[in-house]
Design goal:
Elements: E1 28-31, H1 37-47, E2 51-56, E3 71-72, E4 83-84, H2 85-88, E5 95-98, H3 104-115, E6 119-122, H4 136-142, E7 147-152, H5 167-173, H6 198-221, E8 225-230, H7 231-237, H8 240-249, E9 266-270, E10 275-279, H9 283-292, H10 307-312, H11 314-325, H12 330-340, E11 344-345, H13 350-353, H14 357-361, E12 365-369, E13 375-379, H15 403-410, H16 415-423
Parallel strand pairs: 1-2, 1-6, 2-5, 6-7, 7-8
Antiparallel strand pairs: 3-4, 9-10, 10-11, 12-13
Helix pairs in contact: 1-6, 6-7
Length: 429
């Protein structure tokens, strides 16, 4: 496989490094989740040093293993052993065990692992794990200190609790699609989802935060607890100012394209050869923009004296600014804004994102290698911890690759016992 140029890739922390300096060293996460929200949370915990055991269904595994193209072939592996780019993006620093939890012997293995785990993470439908004795109530009887995190579409209670939930559905139900896209009545206007599964991602982030809070409580009291995370709850929570515009001001937000409902000017403007973002957050920056464009008279116009006035006279503000910006080349305008202290920037394609020197300087692209030696690039952990940095210890695992290792080392099963479980279809790998 072709590797990245040296000025793009940061080899950063050694991918063979252990978690000895990780902030979460010593924590064991038993991850029964799949797709994105749960795996995103467990990858974060793994990056920060936790041991993550990913439990997958034999033969099929995590749904996202098949979500492609594109795929990355593992050396000479066949088509059933290739890695989807999607799966590679959220499953590093984990060990995979393939266990049929519907088999009583398989469920017993998971219960045995849960007994000595700090966290169980799952995203099954409400009540689905109770039949296998893998719900919170069952596992808490054998491990009272267990932090058990459930991620569902709509939570463990309420009239929609039994429904399956997917990011796309929740973006619609949670209001995000009603404020995304072109303004009503303009070309191309229709309800529009965000280009990344943000309801899943945000839920994974809230789940991670909540797990760490629950572990803090566990360390102080010895008491575990059940965390009930819902995609819909999270999506409503991250409506942020748009939710408050309704709750406080009675304003029903609508799609505004690249305009901002509360700040002016804060949008994209056409340039001579493309578009540029202008993001003035205060009066000082607005005045600097006007001076840059030779529009000093706008700084003393009573209609534009503060942001609230500019919102009221949005069209009158943006028309002269747009006319002036239209004559600039994009790169020249962005450079001039930076010099003048006006926040702004380009609109990059994804490939252009990874060409930026800033991205290379921050070490956001990490090179990892599969056991076969096949290399690939991945987006690394975005926060720089000075004492306990994230580590990239293991690439995303093949389905069930560590089944024998985990069962033998953690449950003291013999190689013969593991082989018998494989022959009976209880485990794979």
């Amino acid at each position: 496989m072709q590797t990245a140029d040296s000025d793009t890739v940061s080899h950063g922390p050694d991918t063979t490094a252990d978690a000895s300096s990780g902030a979460l060293k010593g924590l064991r996460i038993l991850d029964l989740s799949r797709v994105l929200a749960g795996p995103w949370a467990s990858q974060i915990l793994g990056d920060l040093g936790a041991e993550v055991i990913k439990v997958e269904q034999p033969d099929s595994g995590d749904d996202t293993r098949a979500w492609g193209p594109p795929f990355l072939a593992d050396g000479d592996a066949g088509p059933d052993e290739r890695f989807s780019a999607y799966f590679l993006g959220c499953n590093r620093n984990k060990r995979s065990i393939a266990v049929d939890i519907a088999n009583p012997k398989g469920a017993a293995l998971i219960r045995a692992l849960a007994k000595d785990s700090d966290v169980v993470l799952e995203n099954f439908r409400v009540g689905a794990l109770e039949r296998y004795g893998l719900d919170y109530a069952s596992l808490a009887t054998i491990n009272p200190a267990l932090v058990y995190c459930s991620i569902t579409g709509f939570g463990q209670s309420g009239p929609l609790a039994s429904r399956p939930g997917y990011d796309f559905v929740v973006q619609g139900m949670g209001g995000l699609m009603s404020i995304t896209g072109q303004p009503e009545g303009t070309p191309g206007a229709e309800p529009m989802k965000v280009g990344v599964a943000v309801s899943d991602i945000f839920t994974g982030l809230y789940a991670t935060i909540s797990i760490l809070a629950a572990l803090r409580h566990r360390d102080a009291t010895g008491e575990g607890q059940h965390l009930d995370c819902a995609l819909l709850d999270t999506q409503v929570a991250v409506l942020a100012n748009q939710a408050m515009n309704w709750l406080v001001g009675g304003m029903v937000p609508k799609p505004m394209g690249n305009l901002h409902p509360n700040v002016v000017p804060y949008r994209t403007f056409p340039t001579r050869d493309g578009h540029a973002i202008v993001a003035t957050g205060n009066d000082r920056q607005f005045h600097a923009l006007c001076r840059l464009l030779g529009l000093e008279q706008m700084t003393t116009d009573p209609r534009f004296l503060d942001n609230a006035s500019r919102v009221a006279y949005r069209a009158e503000v943006e028309k002269p600014l747009g006319d002036a910006i239209a004559g600039w080349a994009t790169a020249d305008f962005i450079a001039a804004m930076a010099e003048a202290g006006v926040p702004g920037g380009p609109i990059n394609r994804i490939d252009q994102v990874f060409e930026q020197p800033q991205i290379a300087a921050r070490g956001l692209v990490q090179e990892m290698r599969l056991p076969s030696g096949t290399s690939f690039r991945a987006v690394g952990f975005p926060v720089k911890l000075s004492a306990t940095p994230a580590t990239y210890r293991a690439p995303p695992p093949a389905l069930g690759a560590q089944t024998g290792e985990v069962l033998q080392t953690l449950l003291n099963l013999s190689e013969t016992e593991v082989s018998e479980l494989r022959a009976a279809g209880v485990v794979g790998g």
